[in-house]
Amino acid sequence: MKYVFNFTFDARGRQLARGLIEDRETSRPEVTACLAAALPPIAIPPPGATVRVDVPFSLP
């Protein structure tokens, strides 16, 4: 299963938004729902500007 987490952070490093993109060919809705529910809000060191980060993630 392949996923991409995407996060947007403000200039102070606080999470503004997040999303989870799944590969339609390998998706399993129950796993996607579990990943989305289990991930707590994330903060990063202040970048000084709004930034978006995409993080690829896969499960066997």
Task: Quickly describe the structure.
With 60 residues, this protein is α+β, with helices and mostly antiparallel strands.
Short key terms for the protein model shown above:
60 residues, 1 helix
Number of helices: 1
Give the mean pLDDT. Answer: 94
Q: What is the makeup of the main sheet?
A: 3 strands, antiparallel
Strand content: 35-45%
Q: What is the succession of H and E elements?
A: EEHE
Q: Give the number of DSSP strands.
A: 3
The radius of gyration over CA amounts to: 13 Å
Order of strands in the sheet with the most strands? 2-1-3
**Shape, principal axes of CA atoms:** elongated
Question: Given the helix and strand composition, which structural class is it?
Answer: alpha+beta
Uncertain runs = none
Straight-line N-to-C gap:
6 Å
Helix content: 10-25%
Oligomerization: single chain
